[in-house]
Amino acid sequence: MFYYRKILVISDNPFLISQFNSLMKKFEGIELSYACSPSNTALLNNTSLSVKINSINLKTDWEQTVQTHDLVFSLHCKQLFPAPMVSKVKCINVHPGYNPYNRGWFPQVFSILNNKKAGATIHEIDKHLDHGAIIAQKEIEIEKSDNSLNAYEKIQEAEVQLLKENLENILSNKYKTILPAEEGNINLKKDFNALCEVDLDKPVTMGEAIDYLRAMTHGNYKNAYFIDKNTGSKIFVAIQLEKE
Ligand code: 0FX
Question: Which residues belong to the active site?
Answer without folding.
Answer: 95
